[in-house]
Amino acid sequence: MMPNRLYRRSKYVWFSLRHWKRRLIFWGGAIAVGSVAVLFAVVTAYANEVFHRLLDVSQFLPLLVSPLGLGLVVFLTRKYFPGSQGSGIPQTIAALKISDPDARQSVLSLRIATGKMFMTLLALFSGASAGREGPTVQIGASIMHALGRLGFFSRVDAERSLILAGGAAGVAAAFNTPLAGIVFAIEEMSRSFEERTSGAVLTAIILAGMASLAMIGNYTYFGHTNDSVSFTQGWMYVIACGITGGIMGGIFSMTLINANRMLPEKVVTFMREKPVRFAAACGFVLAVIGILSGSATYGTGYTEAKHILEGTENVSQDYGILKMLATIVSYLRGIPGGIFAPSLAIGAGFGSNLASLFSDAPAGALATLGMVAYFSGVVQAPITAFVIVMEMTDNHTMTIPFMTASVIAYAVSRIVCPSPLYKTMAESFLAKARKEE
After folding, report:
1. What is the per-residue burial (b if ≥16 Cβ within 10 Å, else e) of 108-145?
2. Largest CA distance in the chain
3. Is the pLDDT of residue 92 over 50?
4. For residue range 294-307, what is the model confidence (pLDDT) as tens digits?
5. Angstrom distance (rounded) from CA 89 to CA 181
6. Which range among 10-24, 79-93, 292-306 has the greatest average pLDDT?
7. Could you give the count of Cα atoms lying within 13 Å of 220 in the half-sphere of its Cβ?
8. What is the pLDDT, as a whole number, of residue 255?
9. Distance between CA atoms of 106 and 34, rounded to whole angstroms?
10. N or C: which terminal CB in the chain sees fewer CB atoms within 10 Å?
11. How far apart are CA 375 and CA 367, in angstroms?
């Protein structure tokens, strides 16, 4: 009886027109996520390039451009694209738990995905210290969620499989790191990995990754370094990077979570009642930080991190702390933009600082350890942190040091900031959505 039942079920699945429509829509959606992620990567790189051309005219131009640009971003976001503020990852995590379709639509939709892309680009045109990876997660989840509303998917598929797969595919395509996409889906977005979800997520990641590879080929996101240390020989470097990354990453997360309580009451009132003017003020502060850093803190941080990693150009010793301040200022107003790439660049800066303290330390190795540790300290997802950096830099010889530094940073960060950044922000979005249900 049982084999016959399984045979009939298998036959129904393979010959069901409705089932194949679902598959084709899902596969097409995954390829679309990969293609959009590549397009987004290309245009954000162009946005960074255009802003740096302005710096060639005068390093003081951001004092005008950044306030006007960030003020415009906040105005347009609030008026035309509400729901597209911030990183995009907390919104996607919250959407996995929102039961009301209308409330879920307020954080995942094609309108929000479009706004996310254009507002992130405008923010980068204005010199904001922001990345595209977090927004790509929300964009990917929005695309897959929109497909679920076509009616070929069950409620469970639409609420979980499609959203989770779209977000994970966004990470895989954005960084060109398929394994990191899988780990990110398990560790950060779902905090579990159900059997019924695994196939959908893996398929989406593979197809999005194939689309990315087909369009721009295989590449290492932050370049490559041959510098490495073994844990037995470099345990002191590993521990130093882990502790430093955990402390600084925890401070960064705690600052973003508790910004309203840490800022003076007058500033909080100004931020709430005059959001566009406050964004312009943040833009001015961002420009001042940029001038102090020698124009190094604008944008994603990709170029500076690559210089540190490969040792091709000197970056100032205060780059890590100034880039961290610039990212806090950029994120404080809630403009669309992520913290993935800036966090990795900040970590590279702190790793470079530590390399200067150890005269015999390989600078490239400490830069990558700093990236792993700081990123782990910020997101408190240690497996995702070391897998992303390992794949991005194509440095598999450092696997054990990466893992160790990441776990140390995670433990230290939990002491400094007990609440994980993305989870805390997702709970805020979730609470707001439940009030509106």
Report:
1. bbebbbebbbbbbbbbbbbbbbbbbbbbbbbbbbbbbb
2. 79
3. yes
4. 899 998 888 888 88
5. 13
6. 292-306
7. 16
8. 92
9. 23
10. N
11. 12
Measured distance CA(428)–CA(78) in Å, rounded: 18
CB-based burial label for 294 (10 Å; 0-12, 13-18, 19+): middle
Strand partners, 338: 131
The amino acid sitting at 342 is P
Q: Which CATH superfamily is domain 28-216 in?
A: Clc chloride channel (1.10.3080.10)
Q: Which residue, chain included where needed, has tokens 């609440």?
A: 419
Select from 144, 123, 48 the least CA-distant residue to 345: 48
Q: Which has more confidence, 361 or 70?
A: 70
Q: Which two tokens stand for residue 64?
A: 């005008």
Distance CA 339, CA 321 (A): 15
What amino acid is encoded at 174 in this protein? A
pLDDT digits (tens, 9 = 90+) for 16-55: 566 666 677 777 777 888 788 888 888 888 888 899 898 8
Number of helices (H), then strands (E), belonging to the chain: the values are 22, 0
Both tokens assigned to 124: 């980068």
Phi-psi region of 334 (alpha: psi -120 to 50; beta: other; left: phi over 0): left
Task: Outline which parts of the chain fall under CATH 1.10.3080.10.
Answer: 28-216, 231-433
* Domain formed by 231-433, architecture: Orthogonal Bundle (1.10)
- Short-list 325, 327, 356, CA closest to 341: 327
- Please, are residues 296 and 317 in contact by the beta-carbon 8 Å criterion? no
Q: What is the distance of C-alpha 48 from the center of its chain?
A: 17
pLDDT at residue 153 in the model: 59
Query: What number is the average pLDDT over the span 394-404?
Result: 80
Structure-token pair, residue 415: 């002491």
- The residue to which tokens 């009030």 are assigned: 435
Confidence of residue 202 (pLDDT cuts 50, 70, 90): low
pLDDT tens-digit map of 141-165? 888 888 776 655 555 555 667 777 7
Give the count of alpha carbons within 13 A of 175, CB side only. Answer: 32
Please choose, from the candidates 162, 163, 214, 208, the residue with its C-alpha nearest in 3D space to the C-alpha of residue 33: 208
Answer yes or no: are the C-beta atoms of 189 and 92 closer than 8 Å: yes
Q: How far is CA 391 from CA 241, 349, 350, 357, 401, in A?
A: 19, 19, 20, 27, 14
Mean pLDDT of 214-234: 60
